[in-house]
Structures are given as C-alpha cells and as structure tokens.
Specification:
By secondary structure, the chain is an alpha/beta fold. The chain is 33% helix and 24% strand.
C-alpha cells in the first residue's frame, strides 16, 4: 500500500497534517479545531475515528487546539515528550492518553518509525520529526528560529520536507498591528524562519533524494504565498535543484494528497548530484591565477 500525506492546514493560526500507511493513520499536530480537522479529513474520505495516534511538535495553540475535541472524545494516543505533555495538561486542564518519548530518541507508530530532534523555538521542549515509512522519509520543520547543525543533519535524509516560511522581513517590519516586542520574538533565534532564512536552510538540506518541499506556517499578515514561493524556488533553481517540487500550503484548505512513492516527480537528481560534486571539487581545488 502506498503512503499518503495530506497537509490539512498550515499557517500562523493552525497546523495539522495527516499521514497514512498500511498500518498507521495519524495526525502530525492538531492545531485546527476538532470540527475543522474532522471536516478536512472527510474531504479525503477519512475520519478521526480511525486515527491511531497524534504526534505533537510542541504545546502552542496553533499546534494543539484540536486535541481536546478529538483525543478526549475518541481516546486517541498522543505522542509527545514529557515537558510538552505537562504544558498541554496545564493548558487544557485534563488528562489524555499520552505516549511519552525522549527528545532525540525514536519511537514506533504502527509500521512507521519516527525520529525526534530538538529545534530552537520558544516552547518548553519543541521538536522536529523525520518520519520513516516504507515509501520514503518525511521531515517536519514547522517552528524554529534558525536551522541548527542538528536540524540540517537530521533532515538531509528526507524525501519530503515540510519547512516553515513564516514571514517576509520587510512585511514584518512594516506591520503596524504587531508591537515591537512581538516582532523581536518572531525575529529571535527562538522565533520563526523568514523566507530568506528558510531558503538558506533548504540549500543546506537539499540532496538528490529530496523531491517535495512544502512551504508551511505562512503568516497571513507578514507574508505572501508568491513571495515565499519565489524565494525558495529561486534558491533551489540557482543551485541546480530542479528535481525538487516546491509546494505551497494553506491555512484554509487542505493541500492535494501526496502519494509516495511519487512516480510523477521530476527526476533530475543525477544532474543535481553531478553539480554538487562539481561544487565540492571547485571548493577543494580552487582555480589558481596564471
């Protein structure tokens, strides 16, 4: 059975994705309302009653607001680390069926293996994921102030990557609705990635194996889809990574479901591999003036 990934919604107000394999059906974050998650699952012919688990990256409302309506009613297991569990219990004032993992360790959900790793964000113990399936590896990087060496190292194996492109620097600086203190938080090393910072991270992460790059967590006020796409796609084109398909996500509607392995993905990976070797050779043996 192929693996299916659907970004149900992604933006500053809510983030949630659905992943289905032969033995597992689970959400990655539940930052939409319970009603919205149900409605969007129904659009792809699924329902929350069949979920085998919910993976949580961190406790901010735009990643957990649907938990109370789903997990308490349907008794769905929630996979998170201990500090995130404690923060969720304080926020929601209820006990849920938590399955605790240690940050930096891996765990199983059905036929899926999930690697977790720490990311720099202003939450108690935020994580990213690299999800191993029989059809490929999926990286999740939705909230981080900058891409650490650990983040780059852990996600370079991804065939599909969901990467935060939260804001355009100029639009954020000109925004009149956000006080300076909030802007400082967003700009900090524990805040969010700008389009340019995401492009720099993508350039370090991309390999011949990466085929799909989803641009997530776009700010409604301080970014535009065409700006995020232009910066990221332009950077990938400039380094010869034409085998990577850049996809926009939406806060309001699900993305088309991606089925892995993807037979329609462009296959220019060998050319990119050759370009990377040429680059390394040029760096190792620079041309000398005559």
């Amino acid at each position: 059975m192929p693996v299916a990934l659907t970004i149900l919604g992604s933006g500053s107000s809510g983030n949630c994705a659905y992943l289905e394999t032969a033995e597992a059906r689970f959400l990655i974050d539940a930052g939409l309302s319970g009603r919205q998650i149900r409605q969007r699952l129904l659009k792809i012919g699924r329902g929350p009653e069949s979920l085998t688990g919910i993976l949580i990256t961190h406790e901010h409302a735009d990643h957990i607001q649907g938990l109370l309506g789903l997990a308490t009613r349907l008794n769905i297991p929630i996979y998170c680390n201990r500090l995130t569990k404690e923060a969720i219990e304080v926020q929601l004032q209820t006990r849920l069926d938590f399955r605790i993992f240690s940050t930096g360790a891996g765990f199983e959900v059905g036929d899926v293996w999930v690697d977790s790793f720490s990311v720099p964000h202003d939450a108690y113990d935020p994580v990213g994921f690299l999800i191993h399936t029989a059809a490929g590896k999926i990286g999740i990087l939705t909230d981080l102030g900058y891409a650490t060496k650990l983040v780059i190292e852990r996600t370079r194996a991804a065939n599909v990557l969901v990467l935060e492109t939260n804001y355009d620097l100029k639009l954020l600086q000109e925004d009149t609705r956000r006080p300076w203190s909030i802007k400082q938080r967003i700009l900090s090393r524990h805040g969010h990635l700008s389009n340019d910072a995401a492009a720099e991270a993508a350039e370090q992460i991309v390999t011949a194996e990466l085929r799909h790059l989803y641009l997530g967590h776009l700010s409604t006020d301080c970014n535009r889809p065409e700006l995020a796409f232009g910066v990221l796609n332009g950077r990938l084109q400039s380094i010869g990574a034409t085998h990577v398909r850049v996809e926009l996500t939406s806060q309001d509607v699900p993305c088309p479901t991606l089925t892995l392995p993807d037979a329609e993905a462009p296959d220019n990976s060998e050319r990119f591999h050759d370009l990377q070797h040429s680059r390394k050779d040029a760096e190792q043996y620079p041309a000398r003036p005559i």
